[in-house]
Amino acid sequence: MENVVRAWVDGWIVSRGAAPPVVETWGYTIDVGLPGHVGRHVFAGTDDAVREADVREVTGAVTGVGTQLKVFAEPARVVPWLGPGWEPFGSGDYLMTARLVPGGAVAVPDGYRLRTWTAGGVFRCLVTDSGGSFAARGQIAVTGATAVVDQIETDAAHRRRGLGAVVMRTLAAEGAALGAETGVLACTPEGRLLYEAVGWSVRAP
């Protein structure tokens, strides 16, 4: 499972333009460089492989604002180990994977337009409505045989219209076309339902 986490880290830093990860005994430290997201610590282990002593050491040593913790384990198990001042940001996230296969053009619902482009090694797609307003988006970063899907978002006014599936299928097809065989993503419990509906599987927790 550590290989899946490492694949997610490698793709995520490309997607977000973050610094290369610093390898730690428990996982990875990543400099992100944003005012509200200075950096993050990602644990390489998942589920029962996450050690209480490591979580307490990491969260006890960092007291500044803007550093996030990514742990793919049950929140009820990990949250009590967090140091003072730490918020369980993303503590309920799932690690998911899917086999990527080439595909043809994705059908877009009437009244919407799909646009795609590549910049900085990241393929992005944007869905707008007939008036040009934002409806949905997503991006994928390919790093060899794996690719990380990231920044999936559908505007509240445009949900339940299949736009999330349009974005996911577009990204998966592009990832496969660029040579990736496996897609990896981290998502919230709410996002999990969408991803399972388009063929993704939970790996942790």
Automatic annotation (TrEMBL):
GO MF annotation list: acyltransferase activity, transferring groups other than amino-acyl groups
Keyword Transferase on entry: yes
Domain N-acetyltransferase as annotated: residue spans: 84-205
InterPro entries in UniProt: Acyl_CoA_acyltransferase (IPR016181), GNAT_dom (IPR000182)
Keywords (A to Z) from UniProt: Transferase
Keyword Ribonucleoprotein on entry: no
Domain of life, per lineage: Bacteria
Gene3D superfamilies in the record: 3.40.630.30
Protein name in UniProt: GNAT family N-acetyltransferase
Organism whose genome encodes this protein: Streptomyces triticagri
Taxon lineage: Bacteria, Bacillati, Actinomycetota, Actinomycetes, Kitasatosporales
